[in-house]
Design a protein that fits this description.
Elements: E1 2-3, E2 6-13, E3 18-24, E4 31-34, H1 37-58, H2 76-88, H3 93-101
Antiparallel strand pairs: 1-2, 2-3, 3-4
Length: 108
């Protein structure tokens, strides 16, 4: 499910007869649950709205799904090799890495 650019993952607890959901793609934890699909959808929207209101009350920016930043720690020698490869192709390090990671489209 999607709501206000937030996506969720849902599972079903057969014993309890209830759906459990969690917003994915952010560091903060937003969960919700419901006994029917309609109730689950309402709970998801309410949880996201509550989260956004809570952030606003505290004067904090809510965590946004996929900011575009991707921090990666690698060995210094590999970093140097990637930097040199990017420069040889006349590209920035970010552009070169993005091109290499985009060679195949991934699907969810």
């Amino acid at each position: 499910m999607k709501y206000k650019n937030y996506e969720s993952r849902v599972s079903f607890d057969d014993e309890a007869g209830i759906f459990h959901g969690e917003v994915i793609g952010i560091r903060d934890v937003i969960t919700f649950q419901g006994e029917s699909v309609a109730e689950l959808r309402r709970a998801f929207a309410e949880s996201v709205d509550d989260y956004l209101a809570f952030c606003a009350e505290r004067g904090e920016e809510p965590d946004k799904p996929f900011s575009g930043r991707f921090v990666l720690r690698i060995k210094p020698e590999l970093h140097k090799q990637i930097y040199l490869a990017a420069k040889q192709e006349g590209k920035s390090l970010n552009a070169w890495v993005e091109e290499k990671l985009s060679w195949q489209k991934y699907s969810a």
